[in-house]
Known about the structure:
By secondary structure, the protein is mainly β. It contains one helix and 15 strands. The strands form two sheets. It has a twelve-stranded antiparallel beta barrel. A two-stranded antiparallel sheet has the order 11-12. A hairpin with a 7-residue loop joins strand 9 (156-164) and strand 10 (172-179). The chain starts with a helix and ends with a strand.
Amino acid sequence: MRKTLLCVLLSALLLTPSPAHGQSYCGVHKYDGTHRNELRGYLIAGDNIVTDAFYGLSVTYKRYLGNRWHVKGDMQMQFGKRLYSIDVEGGYRLPWGWSDFYLTGQLLYNRYQPWNTNETIANMSVRWEMPYFYLRAGATLIHFHLLHFGYTEPVTLTLGGGVSIRPRWNSWNIGAFIRNYDDFYYEGYNINWGFNFHANLLSDLQLYGELNIRPAGSMSQLASKYEESLKVGLKYMW
């Protein structure tokens, strides 16, 4: 899997056009004044100790409501796990000097089909984004429902951060992250880590990817591996 990621990174760099193409960011980013709509899709493949190999796809639509507000919706299907997910999000951007603060609220629903389990998640968080790094903090409420039994976990912290080797507005970038969440789950205190990249193919088309390592055990990078996954996708803006 790591060899596959390296090949993708090298391909992306070879295909990268000049830095004059459009303003793009790896992760949350502000409205560039031109592209109000954003459509993203990626393929995911990985392996974990419960289902062994799995694969799936995800689609996201994002709409900028002017220079500060945005709304977003996501859908995911993972066929190895038989996991189906949808979510909606709204956010506000507050610029401050060379940085931006993003205040976001998200509602997420997961269906784990093999176990007839439903998971509903509410999250509110603040993300501070600088040219070379970001930090995110917030709170998450998770409710599970299995047959006639339901359980709500205590409110947990959302924590994350990342760095990149180039400023976020460059036409290509490589970064690293550590966090307790992903696109469709929040993990309480289990820490994920990994690497990501993006490369502009055209002024309105971007290639991106991510390698995510998800260990088992709470707050311990020495615990046995639970899951690793690779995402590769495209983002189209208009």
